[in-house]
Design brief:
Elements (H helix, E strand, L loop, with lengths): L5 E4 L2 E4 L4 E5 L5 E4 L3 H12 L7 H9 L9 H14 L4 E6 L3 E6 L6
Antiparallel strand pairs: 1-2, 2-3, 3-4, 5-6
Length: about 110
């Protein structure tokens, strides 16, 4: 995937040059989130087109290319880690669509 200068999705900011991911909370405080290189590539791909469903194969290609030593379920494991890191502070999360793929989507607000 070609590096993107900056992606803004809700309160989430992803900078391709510095590889920084930050979230601005409700008090307007900035929080840096730490992602591995692979997690960063997956998140950048998903954030490049929020709400678009990416198949596991598309995400695999973006994160690992044609590395034959990597197994297909690695996408699921890394997406799980991305989701955990986002869920604490981000307005968005990664949603799995069974049998289809994954997408970055806005969290639903709990009903009062």
């Amino acid at each position: 995937m070609s590096e993107v200068k900056k992606i803004l999705v809700g309160n989430l900011s992803i900078c391709g040059y510095s590889r920084n991911v930050t979230v601005i909370d409700e008090q307007n405080l900035e929080h840096k989130l730490r992602f591995t290189q692979t997690e960063f590539r997956l998140l950048s791909c998903l954030a490049s087109q929020p709400e678009k469903v990416f198949s596991r194969e598309e995400l695999f290609d973006k994160a690992w290319g044609e590395d034959p030593s990597v197994m297909g379920r690695n996408v699921d494991v890394h997406i799980c880690q991305v989701r955990k890191k986002l869920n604490d502070k981000s307005s968005h999360t990664v949603k799995a669509l069974s049998g289809v793929g994954y997408k970055l989507t806005q969290k639903r607000k709990p009903k009062p």
